[in-house]
Amino acid sequence: MKTVQSTLLLLLFMPLTEPAPPAQQDSGITHEYGTDNLEETIFSQDYEDKYLDGKNIKENMIIPDEKSLQVQKDEAVTLLPPKKENDEMPTCLLCVCLSGSVYCEEVDIDAVPPLPKESAYLYARFNKIKKLTAKDFADMPNLRRLDFTGNLIEDIEDGTFSKLSLLEELSLAENQLLKLPVLPPKLTLFNAKYNKIKSRGIKANTFKKLNNLSFLYLDHNSLESVPPNLPESLRIIHLQFNNITSITDDTFCKANDTRYIRDRIEEIRLEGNPIILGKHPNSFICLKRLPIGSYF
């Protein structure tokens, strides 16, 4: 009887003596999931708070009707600054405008673009411009330098440069010119090399009154003679590679004044012309340096 009771007692207490499952591992997992759930709960609350706040704000907002929106739109339109003349022109989008200089080089324009009134320098080299007119530079009193090198210019109206009283440098090199226009009075440099200009395309007084002209480039044209009435101010004269066949004692000097000396001329180039300079020795007696060219 005692044995049976002992066995029953042993069986009753056996589960108490078995090792417990690893509670530490389970608690760890429970802790991790608990952290995730906590973060989700915080995020949900934060989102809900923001959402509710946003909802409350939205509910409290006064949504204007179409009429009030139209009034605001009209007021905005009236507050816009007035349009300037040059706002419509694309020149400074197509070209580069910088401190009074406009650079329109190699942009395939076929006419002079509208320029800002404060422009002093225009570089429009290597384009497709065929003609220059007085309208191109109307109301442009500040222009000091124009460069149209490498275009297709065939014609220039006589009044094109007449109002440009401050213009000092003008380049028309590498075009298709047959004649020269009236030039502005204050030019210091004029470049028309590599054109098709003939002597009859230059009027007798074209250069006479240009008392500031120092550099004259007319090489690689079709001139049959040296242009007349060249101003005393000239320092450099390039006439090489034309069709000049003769010169006279009055071309550079003064035939009736043997004391006359032309001080300022530093260089005259006449090579590449069908002229023997050695046959005209009296034509250079007023010069400090002989012209460059063939003497035999």
UniProtKB/TrEMBL annotation:
GO terms for biological process: articular cartilage development; bone development. The keyword NADP does not apply. GO terms for molecular function: growth factor activity. Keywords: Disulfide bond, Extracellular matrix, Glycoprotein, Growth factor, Leucine-rich repeat, Proteoglycan, Repeat, Secreted, Signal. InterPro entries: Leu-rich_rpt, Leu-rich_rpt_typical-subtyp, LRR_dom_sf, Mimecan/Epiphycan/Opticin. It holds the Pfam family LRR_8. It comes from the Eukaryota. GO terms for cellular component: extracellular matrix; extracellular space. Its main location: secreted. Residues 1-19 form the signal peptide. The keyword Membrane does not apply. It is found in: Secreted, Extracellular space, Extracellular matrix. Belongs to the small leucine-rich proteoglycan (SLRP) family. SLRP class III subfamily. Induces bone formation in conjunction with TGF-beta-1 or TGF-beta-2. This is Mimecan.
